[in-house]
Write a structure and sequence with these properties.
- The protein is mainly α.
- It is 55% helix and 3% strand.
- The protein is globular.
Length: 301
């Protein structure tokens, strides 16, 4: 099959039949566009011409790129290419899968960076002035991110009706899978204030939309805008550590586990498919190790 046709068929498959999120499909599209360009440069026009040696060369080229690709990005790229060729084999379009011996790069095990509870409190207090429409919105956004551990893409996709279940929130995660997450009193109060005092004013500035969080002109808030809101709050809070939407998600998980929550409960709250993904948060910090050592070992001091 022609490369471009194969890529389009696969993207339709993951979008419609597998129901993957727009963000995931967009990532696949970017990865496979780069793959198709590379194949075109090699004079390859049809998927039947792709060989395991050719794929190894492609991966080596990507790994040697300047600036070099992160191991996680290279692993995702390989996953996209592998998914394409497995699809073609499964559909009977190609007789064999040339990626069957392709192995993902070993990724360094990085511990997620979380803020302390005091740092989170400082960040939330710095969200914006309480007498300002955007300040009220920003406080609600940050409180909800930390209270639920939801991804920023999940938060900006929320509709007002997703909050109509009392003290729980309905979140649509990866692959359109829904989960229910409790919402604490602080976040609920911040969201109620936003719905009462800020959202009606923002809504009048644009077209009617069911989305919970709105931008300054009344349109649904974007992921990029949410990221900028968090960055601005971090700057006002004088937090030197890099703070991103995922930092609040990491902090949510870390603080729950430090408070005694079961790892499988945290897995469910985060929407992780595997508990192994959640277990990275069960690490013991260096400071905690020092404290336990200092108080427990007879000759520590």
């Amino acid at each position: 099959m022609q490369i471009e046709r194969a890529v389009q068929s696969y993207l339709r498959h993951v979008s419609i039949e597998r129901g993957l999120s727009e963000n995931t499909v967009a990532a696949y599209r970017r990865d496979l566009a780069g793959y198709a360009t590379w194949l075109d440069e090699q004079g390859v026009r049809d998927t039947a011409e792709v060989t395991p040696v050719m794929l190894a060369s492609f991966v080596a080229d990507r790994a040697a790129a300047h600036p070099p690709m992160a191991a996680s990005s290279l692993a995702r790229l390989q996953s996209s290419v592998r998914g394409l060729h497995r699809f073609l084999t499964r559909e009977g379009i190609e007789p064999a899968d040339p990626t069957s011996h392709l192995r993902p790069p070993k990724q360094p095990r990085r511990l997620p960076k979380a803020l302390t509870i005091d740092q989170v409190s400082t960040l939330l207090e710095a969200a914006g002035p309480a007498d300002d429409v955007l300040g009220v919105r920003d406080r609600a956004l940050l409180e909800l991110l930390y209270a639920t551990g939801a991804r920023v893409s999940e938060i900006v996709q929320l509709d007002v009706d997703d909050l109509s279940h009392g003290d729980v929130l309905r979140v649509r995660g990866k692959g359109s899978k829904e989960r229910i997450v409790p919402v604490g009193s602080y976040a609920r109060a911040a969201v109620d204030a936003y719905l009462t005092r800020a959202r009606p004013q923002l809504s009048r500035r644009g077209r009617a939309t069911p989305r919970l969080f709105l931008g300054a002109r009344g349109a649904p808030l974007s992921r990029q805008s949410a990221w900028l809101i968090i960055q601005s709050a971090a700057e006002r809070a004088h937090l030197t550590a890099h703070v991103s939407p995922h930092t609040l998600r990491h902090s949510f998980a870390t603080h729950l586990l430090q408070g005694g929550a079961d790892v499988r409960v945290v897995q469910e709250l985060l929407g992780h498919a595997s508990v192994a993904t959640t277990q990275i948060y069960t690490h013991v910090s260096v400071d905690a190790l020092r404290d336990v050592y200092a108080t427990s070992h007879p000759r520590a001091r």
